[in-house]
Amino acid sequence: MPRLSLNSQILIGCLLGIAGGLWLNIAGSAALRQDTLYGAKLLGTLFLDLLRMVLVPLIFASIVVGVANLRANQKMHRVWITTLAFFSLSMALAILIGFGAAHLFEPGKGMQLEMFAEATRNFQARQMPLPEYIAQFLHGLFQNPFKALAQGDMLAIVIIALFLGIALVVGGERYRNLRLLIQELQELCLMIVGWIMRLAPLGIAALLLQLVASQNAALLGSLLHFIGVVIGSTLFHGVIVLPLLLYIVTRMSPLHFWRGAREALITAFATSSSSATLPITLRCTEQHLHVKKDIANFVVPLGATVNMDGTALYEAAAALFVARLAGIELDIASQAIIFFVAMLGAIGAPGIPSVGMLSMVLVLESVGLPSAAIAILLPIDRILDTVRTAVNVEGDMVGSLIVQRLSGSDTVAA
To answer: Cα separation of 208 and 273, whole Å?
Structure first.
C-alpha cells in the first residue's frame, strides 16, 4: 500500500486527538483522564521541545542566507535596492492588514484557554512601565551573540543574523566559504526538521487531546472565525492591495496581470510551496508578463526566499488571536515587536510547506506568547497555506513588474 503523505498523517493525528479529548470528556474516569492527560502532556512537550531545539540555528541560518543572497547581483544596485524597497513595503502593508483585521473582527474574543494559564502568568510577571520597557527592549537587541544563541533570545538572534547577512553582502566573494557554510547549516537544519515532522502527527494529536479535554465547543467557533478573518484579509491584500500598487506604478490592469499569472497562482495554491512553483513563476513572469530575463531571474527567486506577504500577514493575525485565547492584552510595544519579527521571520521562512510553523513559534515566543498554541494553528495551517502561498507568489510577480518599470525598462500594460 502507498505510504500516507505527511499532511494526511497530520490530519489523522488531529482527528484522533480531537476524538480522544471528546471521549475523555464523555466517558473517561477520573484516574484514566489524569493518566491520559499526563501522557499527552509528555508527548506534546517533547514535540515542542524538538521544534525549539532546531528553531535557533534554523532561523539564524535562514535569515543570514536570505540577506546574503543579495550579493549575487551587486552590479544591479538600482534593481536590488528597488526590489528590497518593494518587498519591505508589501510585507509591511500585509502585516498592517493582518493587525487591522484581527483588531476589527476580534477572533478569539471572550475565549481563555486553561492550558495557556501558565503563559499568561509569566507574561503578566514581565509587564513593566513603558519607559523601562523601551530601555529593556533596546538593551536586549544587541547582545553577545554566543549568549543570545545559548539562551535562545530570539530578537537578539534576529539582529545578529541581520548584521552578519549584511556583512556577507558587503564582503562579497571574500567570505564565500562562510556563506556556503551557513547555507549548509540551513540545509542540515531543514533535514532535522524533516525528521522531527515525522513525530508531528503524534505530537499534534497529544496537544489537541489536551486542548479538547479542557475546553468546550466554543473554541471551534472561534477557530472558524479566525480562518475566515485570515483568508479574507489575505485575499484583500492579494486582490486589492497588490494589484493597486501594480496599477499605480505600471498602469497594468489587474485582469491583464491575472491572465498572465494564472498558471503560477494555481500551482502555488495547489502545492503550498513558492519554491516548487518557482519554475512556473519564472515562465509566467518572462513569457506572459514580459519582464526582462535578467530582472525576472533576480527578483522572482529572491522573492521566493524573502518576500512572504501572506505568511507575514498570517503570523501577525495569529499572534493577536493566540494572545486573546491566552487572555493577554498586547500593548503597542509588543505589537511593534511582532511587526518586526513577523517581517524577518517571513524573510527567513523557507518556501516549503509545514516549515512555516517554526517562524510562527519565533513570533509567539518573541513577546512571551505560548508556543503550545501551534496545536491550534497547525491543523488549520494547510487550509490557510494554500491562499497565503498564492499571495506570496503573486507578490513576487508584481514586484518584478514594478522593479522593471522603476529601474527604467518598459512594461507591457493593458
So the answer is: 26
**Helix (H), strand (E) counts: the chain:** 18, 0
Determine the 3-state secondary structure of 252 from DSSP: coil
Coil/strand/helix, residue 147: helix
Tell me the CA distances in angstroms from 100 to 160, 238, 300, 377, one per residue in order: 30, 16, 28, 20
- The Cα 41–Cα 203 span in angstroms is 9
- The secondary structure element, H or E, covering residue 134 is helix 130-141
- pTM exceeds cut of 0.85: no
Start-to-end C-alpha separation, the chain: 51
Copy the grid coordinates of residue 133.
Answer: 520597557
C-beta neighbour count of 135 within 10 angstroms:
12
> In whole angstroms, what is the distance from residue 206 CA to residue 200 CA?
10
Instruction: Give which of 176, 137, 140, 170 is closest to 156, Cα–Cα.
Output: 140
Question: E strands within 21-167?
Answer: none
Residue pLDDT, tens place only, 332-345: 888 888 888 888 76
Model pLDDT, residue 136? 60
Q: What whole-number distance in Å separates Cα of residue 84 and Cα of residue 292?
A: 18
DSSP 351: S
Which of 282, 306, 242 has its CA nearest to residue 70? Answer: 306
Secondary structure element (H or E) that encloses residue 331, with its range: none
Q: pLDDT digits over 256-302, tens only?
A: 999 999 888 988 887 677 776 887 888 889 889 999 887 887 788 77
Residues 265/390, Cβ–Cβ less than 8 Å: yes
What ranges in 172-273 are assigned the alpha helix state H?
176-197, 200-214, 218-236, 242-250, 254-271
Cell (9 digits) for 360: 510562527
DSSP 326: T
pLDDT digits (tens, 9 = 90+) for 85-113: 999 999 999 999 999 999 999 887 777 66
Q: In which residue are the cell numbers 533576480 written?
A: 298
